[in-house]
Amino acid sequence: MVVSAAPAFAAEPDPLDFSLGELVTQEVITVARKRQEIGDVAAAVHVVSAEDIARMGVTTLPDALRLVPGVQVAAIGNNRWAVSVRGFNGRFANRLLVMVDGRTVYSPLFSGTFWEALDIPLDEVDRIEVIRGPGASIWGANAVNGIVNIITKWARATQGTEARLTVGTEDQALAYLRQGGALEGGHYRISYQGRARTSSELTDGSDGRDSWHTHRLALRMERFIDGLGELGVNADVFSNRSEDLWLVPDLASSPDLRSVRLTQADRGASVTAHLNRVVDEGREWSLQGSVDYHDTAVGDMLTENRTSVDVDGQYRFDFGRHDLTVGSSVRYHRQEVVGSDYFTIGQAVREFGLVSAFIHDDFALIPKTLTLTAGLKYEHHTWTGNEWQPNLRMAWNLAPRHMLWGAVSEASRTPARVEYDVSYAFQTLPPGNILLRITPPQDIAAERMRSYELGYRGQPTDTFHVELTAFEMRYRNMRTLGRESTIVPASWITLERPLAFDGHARVNGVEAGLDWQPSTRWRARLAMSYLGTHVESTGDELTDSAARLFVERVPTRQASLHVTWKPSSGHVLDAIVRHVGELKNREVQGSDTRGVDAYTELDLQYAVRLSQAVTVSLTGRNLLHERHAEFGRIYMPSPTREIGRSAFVSVQWALD
To answer: CA-to-CA distance for 128 and 218, rounded, in angstroms?
Structure first.
């Protein structure tokens, strides 16, 4: 039972009292790097507001994304998640660009996000903007299948002292403390969050060894400088410890596997400064720079020490019926990776990065009726050279509050460090004494994807809003296993296969979101998605098996229904039903293609405001089953864990 409902009872207007017209005019900034009303955006975009997060009864960022159409979220355990958009899901999903306030937070170690290291307090999240489909023409590499931009609250919106304590069967203790105040010409916020989460269970009922402990201290400041604009500074330091359990080959005793209990330690710090200035109604510019430091140790298996520097600037201006935005960025990484017997690193320390530039134009062919959007991003990466990522979109306002849109886009994914010069050996093959060792590719290349999208967004009545999207995405230069093998005889027979970037695949599907608010007391939101996948065969069984595992580990069908009832002032009841289809491929070992069963779960939350200063909420999650599996073993050889039924109680105090 979690007290995430506190924001719903803040002094801000309760969104249950909003009309759907006001909800549709909510602003987004991620689609075109400028403010737009969501009803005017020619893209599959969904906003998870602070109020939505509060009413879901969740305590982590991945769980806050579960109800977004077309987003696949699976808990691998109590401290690991697989999160993706439109397929290719996994612990190391690498086609989803994740940002915090426009700053990329993906790890170049595998081009994905360590969600366990991104434990941002949900109380500080203003909204999460989710773009389904490519956004590479404006955000660049890795914005292939989608973008998640976590936008935090302004310091001026979080003044005063606030505390929140959550205790329960899963999060044994989750504490948050915040102090906000005024500065000369601005505001500041200092906050701390600490978490202690217990372990899940394995399929046999034993301890899953996946506890999670986090600490995060953060600072945010904003100040307006005359003649220059608004300066903002965000800084944080964090330290996380998360347990894991690996089943690894005992290299001294073939064909035995041994269980190894590991603790992953993540430490880091970041500083981001951004300067924004609105010159006049048609012109504005912004400049942002950040420095990130990360130190990750996965037991004695693998360590990463990395410093990243990112500088990004853009300028927006009107020119006749054109609304133009141009910009450029530079990103630099210095990374040291050290491995063990299971990881072999070609060169421990490497320095690499990319430079980029983009142009984005919204051209009003027929003002307020027909808009053509064209964009192009150029990038040069140290390893793959030049990449061009274009985008073409058309938006047609059929009638007031009804829009039809279409898009054709190209996007690329730059290779990760583990794909460049890292060899690793974990997977065993039948009859049990064959060890598969993955080696670096002979030729490395950026993966490419072309996307075709068609969508409708409309408000047929004052109380009903609908969003529909159909898409097809075609992949080339896709990472898979090469078809040439090297056999190394030893106590384990080692089969070496290099990575290759020559795979082809196709993903298509349909996504739907319905929002109905018949009164200020009731609201219902329905999300549904269908996803189909196809991998082009190479004729090699092992290569095709690895490609299918990489592409097909997503449910074909997903659906969720979230109903909110406000019986009286200060009382809110939320019920969420989630259905996730079967995962066909949990792990592939020879001909073994076992899957994770489909599941349906129920979450309930009741929140009550006891006074202007105190709010209490009770939450039960996964109430229909004692426990269920959501994902399985992929690359890291962890046993399958099951997510259990849980209950939380949370109390929030406004201390002044």
So the answer is: 19
Rounded distance between C-alpha atoms, residue 469 and residue 45, angstroms? 10
Mean of the per-residue pLDDT values of the chain: 89
368: left (phi over 0), alpha (psi -120 to 50) or beta: left
| Measured distance between the N- and C-terminal CA atoms of the chain, rounded to whole angstroms | 25
Say if residue 200's pLDDT is above 90.
yes
Report the length, in residues, of the chain: 656
Residue 399, Cα to own-chain centre: how many angstroms? 34
Confidence of residue 18 (pLDDT cuts 50, 70, 90): very low
State the pLDDT confidence band at 223, using cuts at 50, 70 and 90.
very high
Cite the beta strand spans of 320-348 per DSSP E: 322-339, 343-345
Q: How many CB atoms lie within 10 A of CB 382?
A: 15
| Residue 133 in this model has a pLDDT that exceeds 90 | yes
Q: What percent of the chain has pLDDT over 70?
A: 92
Q: Could you read off the pLDDT of 518-534 as tens digits, one per residue?
A: 998 999 999 999 999 99
pLDDT of residue 280: 86
Tokens of 333: 């990484």
Please say whether the beta carbons of 27 and 96 come within 8 A: no
Instruction: Give the span between the Cα atoms of 624 and 626, in whole angstroms.
Output: 7
CA-based angle 622:624:627, to the nearest 5?
Answer: 60
Cβ atoms < 10 Å from Cβ of 159: 17
Q: What does each C-alpha distance from 191 to 177, 223, 237 come to in angstroms?
A: 6, 18, 11
Strand partners, 479: 501
Which distant-in-sequence residues (6+ apart) come within 8 Å of 563 by Cβ?
A: 522, 523, 524, 574, 575, 576
d(CA 182, CA 656): 14
Does residue 429 surpass a pLDDT of 50?
yes
CA 370/CA 406 separation, integer angstroms: 12
Distance, CA of 190 to CA of 178 (rounded, Å): 6
Please confirm whether the linkage preceding 431 is cis (ω < 30° from 0): yes
Supply the pLDDT for residue 490.
67
A 10 A CB-CB count for 568 gives 8
Burial label, 62 (beta-carbon count in 10 A; 0-12, 13-18, 19+)? buried
Smallest Cα–Cα separation from 553: which of 582, 592, 511? Answer: 582
Q: How confident is the model at residue 4 (pLDDT cuts 50, 70, 90)?
A: very low
Average confidence (pLDDT) over 115-130: 95
Whether 521 and 569 have beta carbons less than 8 Å apart is answered as no
Torsion sign over Cα 560, 214, 79, 166: negative
Q: Where are the alpha helices (DSSP H) in 515-653?
A: 541-552
Rounded to whole angstroms, the Cα distance separating 189 from 178 reads 7
